[in-house]
């Protein structure tokens, strides 16, 4: 049984003639007869009464009719659903992100996305980058938002945002009044950092080890909210881009200072997906995400320019 046979059965019933059905479907009449015969053979019963006058349904044909209509109706609904996803108006999207990004950046992005595409259902799971990679490969998430890449060739990473690593301090810290601070001077301060065995800490340590510089840790945690709290309390200094801190910077609860002789590479945000497996809804979110993140970047630059002036 196939869709051609079911479609032909419905057409013959509605038109009432094998020959007229062939004419309207632009097919030879024997092709129409063959499709109906094959369908009847598979079902084991005749569906149509052939003869002079209009073709009529057998009792078995009457029983099969609503199911044939349902099959074609479901197919049309499926086509419409696919078209909706292609247009970005419907579908389900599962995202992965780390907790810090999810709490400080993602809400604004998701708010605007859900406002623009209200029929898209979203699911967000929060894990460290290595776990996000594993879940992606297990197809438990479609897209991962991460600061770090892996060497896995089966995953595509798209950079959507880039920023410098700067010094973040309390407004009451002496460095808050300066435009730039040398890295060696910064390292004389006590540090507030993410804990060991995080990718942030690994990157911090490896960068400073390369230039043979050390730092003293005052407080370490894997919670961004606590890091912000202790910076505000002037318990130490923190090295970060502005993205996670943008709300506190805008409210002047924290101060961002450029690092002179900055040894740190640009910090980036990536969206990752399995290679060649990003569907139209995935691509739609990626474009929206990139637009929203860079809009935030432009606002931050404007704010910093105003503060500098």
UniProtKB/TrEMBL annotation:
Keywords: DNA-binding, Transcription, Transcription regulation. It comes from the Bacteria. It holds the Pfam family LysR_substrate. Gene3D superfamilies: Periplasmic binding protein-like II, Winged helix-like DNA-binding domain superfamily/Winged helix DNA-binding domain. Residues 1-58 form the HTH lysR-type domain. Belongs to the LysR transcriptional regulatory family. This is LysR family transcriptional regulator. It comes from Paenibacillus agricola. The lineage of its organism: Bacteria, Bacillati, Bacillota, Bacilli, Bacillales.
